[in-house]
Amino acid sequence: MTIETLNFESKVEVLLAQVREELLNRLRYSTLSHENDIYQNLAAHPEWDWVAHLRDKSGPTYKDLVDKLERLEATQCQFDLGLFGFCSDCEEPIEAARLLEDVTTQRCGQCEMNLKAR
Fold first, then answer.
1. How many CB atoms are located within 10 Å of the residue 118 CB?
2. 33: Cβ–Cβ under 8 A, 6 or more apart, which residues?
3. How many CB atoms lie within 10 A of CB 91?
4. Does residue 53 share a domain with residue 17?
5. What residues make up the domain containing 110?
6. Are residues 76 and 93 in the same domain?
7. What three-state secondary structure class fits 42?
8. Which stretches are zinc fingers (dksA C4-type) (predicted)?
9. Which of 22, 58, 99, 118 could form a disulfide with 54 if both were Cys (CB 3.0 to 4.6 A apart)?
C-alpha cells in the first residue's frame, strides 16, 4: 500500500465518521418522533448496516447523506479488496486528480464520459 493510498484511506475514514455523526445528530435532535426512533434503531445496529436501515426508514430528507454514506462505505470496501483507485468499468487506474476531487469516484474520466454519452 502506498503513502498516497493510505492518505486516501484516512480521508475516507474521516469522512465516514463525519457523515455518521451528522446523521446521528440530525436524527437525535429532530423534532419528529419517527426520526428519534430511527436514531434509537441506528444506535442499536452496527454501522455497516445503517445504509439498509436508513433507506427503508429515513425518506427523502436524508437521501443525500445516505447516498454519501453508501459511496464512502463502497470506497472503504475497495480498500479492503485492494481495488481502490481502479475503474469499475475498464479496471484501469483512475486519474489521481479525479480521486483528489472525489475520493469515492468509481470510474476513470474516459469511462465516465462514455457513461454520460449513453
1. 4
2. none
3. 10
4. yes
5. 87-118
6. no
7. helix
8. 87-111
9. 58
List of residues 6+ apart from 45 with CB closer than 8 A: 53
Same-domain check for residues 76 and 116? no
Tens of pLDDT along 6-47? 689 999 999 999 999 999 999 999 999 999 999 999 989 899
State the pLDDT confidence band at 112, using cuts at 50, 70 and 90. very high
Q: Are 50 and 23 in contact (CB under 8 A)?
A: yes
CA neighbor of 65 nearest in space, from 13, 22, 25, 8: 22
Say if residue 73 is in the same domain as residue 92. no
- Length of the chain in residues, anyone? 118
| Residue among 61, 63, 57, 60 nearest 42 (CA) | 57
Quick one: 21 and 47 in the same domain? Answer: yes
